[in-house]
Backbone:
């Protein structure tokens, strides 16, 4: 490649085009492409690489606990999961509207996998996503330096197009957790989409949060425009374990 062209591409920050230009030049010569066809291919290379890098940044910013995909989910294991409903969520339309989503069911049925997989699909569609377990939320908002960090933390929770709060119900939350969770839900209400997963029935959220009025207020807003996906069945993680033998009556 001409050195002046390389330098100019660097100045213009067209690294994607620079990385494929030599290949495109060879292709143009070999296939007799005209100037317009060559330019179109070269510019598309730059666009493709920029979009890929942007996606990588969004996925990194989402801070998923694990890399999950819908293709990697075994829908055949649990017939209670509506595959069409899950893939409809993966289109990201609920983020555009915006609507909330609750995945609820016992441990091990795939709630976290689906939440992260749907979040990844939403990120692929150009939306910002933030994944946090309820433990992350509590740890960050209950920090000793909260007075100085509260605004920064809340901005992060409120700015993303989709906020995923995972693992509601694993254990009872510390005092005042309900206040902080309510602030997040209230300020995102009808503005940004929120997804939660829970292994506890909704009627137990008051006990879980330790604040019945706060839990009621949270659910009142969160469920107003929410898609609720109820998942039943046994744990996928325990699928290979033999069932315990039943005692035989004498």
Residues:
């Amino acid at each position: 490649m001409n050195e002046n062209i390389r330098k100019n591409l660097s100045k213009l920050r067209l690294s994607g085009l620079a990385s494929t230009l030599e290949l495109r030049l060879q292709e143009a010569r070999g296939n007799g492409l005209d100037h317009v066809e060559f330019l179109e291919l070269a510019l598309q290379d730059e666009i493709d690489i920029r979009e890929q890098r942007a996606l990588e940044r969004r996925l990194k910013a989402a801070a998923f606990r694990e890399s999950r995909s819908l293709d990697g989910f075994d829908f055949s294991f649990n017939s209670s999961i509506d595959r069409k409903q899950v893939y409809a969520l993966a289109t990201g339309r609920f983020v555009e509207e915006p609507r909330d989503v609750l995945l609820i069911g016992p441990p091990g049925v795939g709630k976290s996998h689906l939440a992260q997989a749907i979040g990844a699909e939403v990120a692929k569609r150009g939306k910002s996503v933030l994944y946090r377990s309820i433990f992350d939320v509590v740890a960050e908002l209950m920090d000793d330096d909260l007075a100085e960090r509260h605004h920064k933390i809340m901005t992060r929770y409120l700015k993303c197009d989709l906020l995923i709060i995972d693992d509601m119900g694993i254990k009872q939350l510390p005092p005042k957790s309900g206040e902080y969770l309510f602030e997040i839900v209230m300020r995102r209400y009808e503005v940004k989409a929120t997804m939660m997963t829970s292994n506890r029935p909704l009627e137990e959220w008051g006990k879980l949060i330790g604040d019945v009025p706060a839990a009621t207020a949270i659910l009142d807003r969160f469920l107003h425009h929410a898609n609720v996906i109820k998942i039943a069945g046994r744990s996928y993680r325990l699928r290979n374990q033999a069932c315990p033998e039943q005692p035989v009556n004498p």
